């Protein structure tokens, strides 16, 4: 096996151990997650009628794949904001032939086109920044007029209507003349109806999708939800759903004794120098890194030990991690509905822009966002999580110096664990119970670190689970 960095190697070993369980949970494409910047997952997502802000903040991140070391992580970029930014860089563009055909039709009807634009600025105000060409202004007016109608109104329906005003119940003051001029224009340019419809429909969907992300409405409407913070403050955000109820997650995560799903992972740690350690497992990955990155065991009064500071003569340790209560959490962004105009997750324009072919009318990026939209790229969103209780950690040291351990680890003492830079259980220094034992025949000392568990009911802030792996949705990648 190739040698990875320390974190990549350990996460790869956990992924390998979890793969049979992932298959049973219908998560064959599970990737391990670097939690370092995120921390453990706040699984108790529903607080009354609100969505837990901590759960939302954890999920609402852009995830990227680290190809060198085989895991996904995030730099804490807000996914909703980045999705909005990509949509802002996306537009529907005509090829040269379609553009020339539409321009010719507009030139033949220059008088009414100028009237539409003049009527708009006179009655509705200035065009948005960047809407400077006659074509873009005309397309903007057509798109805005459709928003005065019922949800889902199309340019074709408006064009063919004998009573267009009946389709537009929300005409603002002064808008009647704009509509009259527009109907004249649509009647006189029926030969390019398909081109007009494609441009207006595509750009309308883009505009509507963007508006369903930013800005948030004053009250919750379809496609939006309210999150609640620990201090009771609330915020309206684009809606996410989670398939599993908090009761389902809790029952699986904290099952009755002797039941539930379990993942076991074992590997060895060999001391390479005073600062470096190598981890490896038979038939698995190997990696070298900082000793302190692998495990830190921390207690009160600033007590802190890495794996080799209990007994400096120790050079090898066997590590076993047992993940109990393995279960799933399945989040999903609410998809855009073209019929109702609600929802915000609309990857189709992005996928089309990624696959844009020069010379063909369609979506394209202007400018290019500079992202890797492919599967295992750097623009991903969590679509499913495999979570568990905090792991039981068993450390077997090859030494007979039992007193070196008992002097530092008192029987049934309480500690915190930092694993791969992740403070497990939110960094609590009393979450783990430590016990020590000795095997004189094998000259080994064993420390077993057992999580205290979660006693219900507890506040949403304290409901944290370890993330074994995740399936990632890649919005810019074509569906398989």
Structure description:
The chain has 480 residues and is α+β, with helices and mostly antiparallel strands. It has two domains: 3-72 and 242-329 and 383-473, no CATH class; 86-217 and 334-378, no CATH class. Helices cover 29% and strands 27% of the residues. The protein contains 13 helices and 27 strands. Strands 1, 12, 13, 14, 15, 16, 17, 22, 23, 24, 25 and 26 form a twelve-stranded mixed β-sheet that branches. The chain has a four-stranded antiparallel β-sheet with strand order 3-27-21-18. Helix 5 crosses helix 6 (134-147), helix 5 (110-123) runs antiparallel to helix 8 (175-188) and helix 6 crosses helix 9 (193-211). The protein is elongated and about 100 Å long. It starts with a strand and ends in a 7-residue tail after the last strand.
Supply the key terms.
480 residues; alpha+beta; 2 domains; twelve-stranded mixed β-sheet; four-stranded antiparallel β-sheet; elongated
* Low-pLDDT segments: none
Major pleated sheet: 12 strands, mixed
> Helical stretch count?
13
Helix content range: 25-40%
Helix/strand-derived class? alpha+beta
Whole-number total of structural domains: 2
Quantity of strands, as a count: 27
- Provide the residue-averaged pLDDT: 92
Radius of gyration: 29 Å
């Amino acid at each position: 096996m190739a040698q990875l960095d320390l974190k990549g190697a350990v996460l790869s070993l956990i992924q390998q151990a979890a793969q049979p369980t992932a298959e049973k949970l219908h998560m064959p494409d599970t990737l391990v997650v670097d939690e370092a910047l995120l921390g453990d997952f706040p699984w108790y997502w529903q607080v009354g009628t609100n969505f837990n802000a901590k759960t939302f903040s954890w999920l609402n991140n852009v995830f990227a794949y680290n190809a060198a070391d085989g895991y996904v992580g995030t730099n804490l970029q807000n996914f909703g904001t980045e999705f909005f930014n990509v949509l802002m860089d996306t537009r529907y563009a005509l090829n040269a032939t379609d553009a020339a055909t539409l321009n010719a039709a507009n030139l033949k009807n220059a008088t009414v086109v100028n009237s539409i634009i003049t009527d708009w600025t006179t009655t509705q105000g200035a065009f948005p920044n960047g809407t400077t060409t006659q074509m873009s202004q005309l397309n903007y007016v057509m798109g805005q007029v459709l928003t005065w109608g019922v949800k889902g109104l199309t340019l074709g329906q408006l064009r063919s209507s004998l009573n267009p005003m009946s389709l537009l119940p929300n005409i603002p003051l002064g808008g009647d003349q704009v509509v009259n001029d527009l109907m004249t224009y649509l009647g006189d340019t029926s030969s390019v109806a398909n081109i007009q419809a494609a441009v207006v429909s595509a750009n309308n969907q883009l505009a509507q999708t963007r508006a369903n992300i930013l800005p948030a409405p004053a009250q919750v409407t379809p496609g939006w939800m309210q999150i609640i913070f620990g201090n009771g403050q609330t915020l309206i955000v684009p809606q996410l759903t989670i398939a599993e109820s908090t009761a389902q997650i809790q029952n699986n995560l904290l099952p009755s004794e002797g039941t539930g799903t379990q993942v076991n992972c074992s590997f060895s740690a060999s001391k390479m120098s005073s600062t470096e350690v190598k981890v490896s497992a038979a038939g698995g990955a190997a990696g070298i890194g900082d000793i302190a990155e692998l495990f830190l065991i921390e207690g009160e009064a600033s007590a802190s030990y890495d794996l080799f500071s209990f007994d400096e003569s120790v050079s090898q340790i066997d590590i076993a991690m047992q993940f109990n209560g393995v279960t799933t959490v399945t989040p999903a962004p609410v998809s855009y509905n073209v019929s109702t105009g609600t929802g915000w997750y609309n990857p189709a324009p992005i996928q089309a822009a990624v696959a844009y072919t020069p010379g063909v009318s369609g979506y394209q990026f202007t400018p290019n966002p500079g992202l890797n939209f492919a599967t295992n790229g750097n623009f991903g969103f969590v679509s499913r999580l495999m979570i568990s209780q905090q792991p039981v950690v068993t450390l077997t040291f090859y030494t007979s110096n039992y007193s070196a351990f008992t002097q530092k680890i008192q029987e049934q003492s309480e500690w915190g664990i930092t694993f791969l830079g992740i403070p497990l259980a939110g960094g609590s220094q009393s979450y783990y119970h430590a016990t020590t034992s000795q095997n004189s025949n094998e000259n080994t000392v064993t420390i077993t670190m057992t999580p205290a568990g979660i006693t219900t009911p507890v506040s949403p802030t304290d409901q944290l689970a370890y993330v074994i792996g995740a399936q990632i949705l890649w919005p810019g990648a074509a569906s398989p």
